[in-house]
């Protein structure tokens, strides 16, 4: 495993902006990507009538989703910030994610395993995401929340 780390001052204090944008603009652009993960957290509210005890379970589901995101992301990003030694190598790499994993772990095998693991997880999530997308499109259309709601809110009786 890694034995060299980036100093706390470098991670938390020193500005290493290389984008060419002003610091404030770069910060807002960076935080926007992180916030994008939580854009659809209100979507389950539109199909809450399908749940048992939605008054109790829906807030629990929404808050648990946010908590899982924070509990898994903060430690991962903290480790990555303190173990990524060469930002130039990551940004110039053909596959930045595997270069980042390699810098964090110091092992090509572990880096490859991590990337394969993420690929498997993403692949397994594709079908449930499309099913959810269809359910959400129908629910939003039923509530006249989308253009062409008349078309999208109809359900084929044969299915």
UniProtKB/TrEMBL annotation:
Statement: the UniProt record of this protein carries the keyword Endoplasmic reticulum: no
MF GO annotations: transmembrane transporter activity
A Gene Ontology cellular-component term: membrane
InterPro entries: AA/rel_permease1 (IPR002293)
Chief localization: membrane
Protein name: Amino acid permease/ SLC12A domain-containing protein
Organism: Cladophialophora psammophila CBS 110553
Source organism, top-level taxon: Eukaryota
Annotated TM spans: 20-40, 61-85, 105-126
Subcellular location(s) per record: Membrane
Topology relative to the membrane: Multi-pass membrane protein
Keyword Hydrolase: no
Any Pfam family: AA_permease_2
UniProt keyword terms in alphabetical order: Membrane, Transmembrane, Transmembrane helix, Transport
């Amino acid at each position: 495993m890694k034995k060299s780390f980036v100093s706390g001052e470098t991670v938390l204090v020193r500005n290493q902006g290389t984008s060419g944008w002003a610091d404030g603009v770069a910060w807002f652009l960076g935080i926007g990507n992180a916030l994008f993960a939580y854009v659809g957290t209100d979507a389950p509210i539109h199909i809450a009538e399908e749940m048992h005890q939605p008054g109790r379970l829906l807030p629990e589901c929404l808050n648990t989703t946010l908590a899982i995101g924070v509990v898994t992301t903060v430690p991962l990003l903290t480790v990555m910030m303190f173990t990524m030694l060469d930002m130039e190598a990551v940004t110039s790499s053909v596959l930045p994610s595997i270069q980042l994993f390699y810098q964090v772990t110091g092992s090509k095998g572990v880096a490859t395993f991590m990337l394969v693991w993420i690929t498997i997880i993403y692949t397994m999530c594709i079908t449930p995401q499309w099913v959810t997308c269809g359910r959400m499109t129908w629910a939003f259309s039923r509530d006249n929340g989308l253009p062409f709601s008349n078309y999208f809110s109809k359900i084929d009786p044969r299915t």
